[in-house]
Amino acid sequence: MLRLSFLAFITLFLTLGCGGDDSQTAGRGFQGGAGGDGGSGGAQIGIGGTGGTTVPTEPVVSITIEPGTAETVVKNGVATPVTFTVVGTGRDGGIMRGLAATWNVSRPDIGSFGAAGVFTPRGELGGDVTIQASVNGLDGPLTASAVLTVRVETLVGADALPADVVTAVDAATPGAEAAPVIAYPHDQVMMPQNVVAPQVQWTPTGAADDVFRVRLSKPHVQVTALVSPGSPAATAHRFKAEAAVWRALTDSDTDSPVTLELTRWDRTAETLSAAHTITLQISPGAIYGALYYWQVTGSQVMRILPGQDTRQEVTGAGQCVACHTVSRDGRYLAGSVSDYLHSTVIDLTTDPPTTLFTKSPPHIKFSTFSPDSRRLLVNKMSDDYLNDGTDLRGFSLLDPQTGDEVTSVNLSNATSASQPEWSPDGSKIAYIGDISSSYSRSDVYESGNLSILPITGADTFGSPTTLHVGSTLWGAAEGGSANMHPTWSPDSQFLAFAHGEFGRATAGVSTVAQYFPGALYFIAASGGNPVRLDRANGGAGGVQSYWPTFSPFTTPKPGGSGRLFWLAFFSPRPYGNHPQAASPPHSQIWVTAIDPDAGPNDPSHVPYWLPGQDPVAHNIDAHWTALPCRANGEGCGSASECCSGVCLTPDGGGPAVCGPPPPSSCRAAGQGCGGNDDCCDTLTCVANTCTAQVF
After folding, report:
1. What CATH class does 4-150 carry?
2. Closest among 46, 133, 148, 43 to 97, alpha carbons compared
């Protein structure tokens, strides 16, 4: 059977079928299956029902639907049903209204039919729905179509204000007074569909008793929040939409951006200020993986799961697992322990996590797992962590189950080497080579080149090559000759890396001002000039971005024409209006979308702050792991988290769950999977990601 790419398939009508009262038969195209007793069959495009009671008085030769176009508004969760009627024309010219028909819809996630041609919105999403009716005619089935526009409008915070104020503020148009300034999110930010709602933060203007109006909108959805005086949100000048409200925005009008407008209602003058308006871009795809990072404040490894805004402690406070790495399947974590004199691998699948080994030697500084998690390539240190010239700056290959060294061939070809990263396709190791420094530690150096070590067979390596010489960027805004922390794109065709004055962001300094300048770059694995990621760096002069790591996932660009990679990094830049202490520095994890097809232009997008972090902690060293897409019946926060691409609230209410999958669909490269059967032909499910394998 021909299987369509899931990315292509979502542009077609959903192919779910539900029959009449006693039948649930799926068909092809708009043609429904056979109906049950008192009912009729389903159709490919959606969820059907029966409607109308009129029995034809003569053979029917054509039908229409009334109304042909209609609109309904779901206001604050209250849906207004719409009744459609089938009008038939008989062979002899007679007009028959209210014919019994089978009804089907193109968007069952927006609403469905009950009895007598009544369409009821689910109340969650907005959009245009194609309505189709089918009647048995003189020469076979007859069909007609109509279009229903469903709009969703939600007002938040009205119960804390007098009714007349609510009415006035909600209806007012922006004026000329100074507008409050949005501090976060940033204009033109790109986010995946399943990201938690961003916390809107602003710098206020006006009097203490003024009301702030936060309005988030798309063509078919509008969310208005009135932040009133005295509320915690007003005191902090922040607003965050609830999950269901945010999902209405992300899952509706998926090709359109979200417009965020912030205004202030002057309660004395009874006027609305000018508006500060920005645009939020949403990719119609999910980053469905966990992210592990090192919270230096407290010396803990933390984990944030997809679609959540809370963090989980993986290693206890004070149990410093430094310079950690996580296997792509999310099973193992490796790193240095506490005093840097011991190395460990932890099995993350047990509760609590189980330590597989803790050894000395080897002393791990940086490390990387093979895609199948059977090997651990480590940046070894020889005897201690002192600056006494004993750091070998070389690599060893370990069995991650035992910590024992594995015999390898030609691994010693990589000399003066640090910060290895195994490619997702298993064919290459990227690392920083030709390190030059007056220090002995493998992460403390003034110059280093981006290098590639090919893998030519089982535990066998080829001759290394230099992809980029760090000193060629001496004249960049950040200066310096040190490349650092390479990371592979999901398709193994590109690399991102940091560059700056030193092989690390700081050297034990205590203030943001003392960070070494650093910036992010993007380069093809086949060679060429690197492109500075100015939008991710915070502008052409941005020099506070460090330690990039790619997500294993690829999502579509809005509009469906192209793809996006996702890159995490840390930066001490301000997060909205949250206070930023100078000591210790509050570095946070940020995520930028990367367009790999941008050519010589900056492929990055304005980044978003990773929800779930402690905003006053010092967070660095993010690592992504892939989780399988969610199966039918599992909970979901957005449609893109589901293998089926369908996320619905059950008819009886309750949390949203993944719905039945479209037949003959498959997951494209870079999307989540639970097994090989989820992936399109020629792709394999590796570490819960559909992947084109080389080895």
Report:
1. mainly beta
2. 133
